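Reminder to self: tokens first, then the designed residues, so the page reads top to bottom the way the pipeline ran.
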């Protein structure tokens, strides 16, 4: 196999900066907040799935309004919990509570997710929307949540790939980002 030199103006191979510096990786792996995030993320997803079923049931049948409403409130409180603990995790690992370069766009989109969930609570408490409007707002919030969860799952995958021992056999592989 021959080696070619790069021609001027030829596209360069895409390389991405690692998500974590070696120091950030040590802090990430050493903090309890990584474990907390690793537990809360699947719990929140389970709460989301149950709530989604209840919301869709209400929209299809008109039944179960109270259960659907309670489930959206629980989902929102779970979201607040994971957001607050995620900010603490980000502070420990990256020394800023939000918008660390490695997770900037995930954090930006998280603000939309948070805004829609908070709008649901505001509409619920103020009576701005009827039950159907509330459930449609919940679905909008849930759609953004699914996109945001996908962003974080992608970053988790990237962290694991970047954490695989290429240079050193004793370097730990990536844990939940």
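Designed residues (177 positions):
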């Amino acid at each position: 196999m021959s080696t070619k030199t790069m021609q001027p103006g030829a596209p360069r191979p895409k390389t991405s900066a690692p998500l974590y510096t070696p120091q950030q990786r040590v802090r990430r792996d050493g903090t309890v907040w990584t474990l907390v995030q690793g537990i809360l993320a699947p719990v929140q997803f389970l709460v989301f799935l149950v709530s989604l079923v209840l919301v869709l049931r209400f929209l299809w049948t008109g039944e179960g309004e109270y259960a659907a409403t309670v489930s959206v409130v629980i989902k929102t409180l779970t979201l607040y919990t994971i957001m607050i603990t995620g900010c603490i995790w980000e502070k420990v690992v990256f020394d800023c509570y939000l918008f660390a370069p490695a997770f900037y766009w995930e954090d930006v989109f998280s603000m939309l997710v948070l805004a829609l969930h908070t709008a649901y609570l505001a509409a619920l408490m103020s009576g701005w929307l009827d039950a159907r409007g509330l459930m449609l707002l919940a679905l909008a919030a849930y759609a953004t949540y699914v996109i945001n969860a996908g962003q974080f799952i992608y970053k988790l995958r990237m962290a694991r790939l970047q954490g695989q021992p290429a240079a050193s056999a004793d370097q730990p592989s990536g844990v939940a980002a």
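Confidence is low (pLDDT under 50) at residues 1-6, 165-177.
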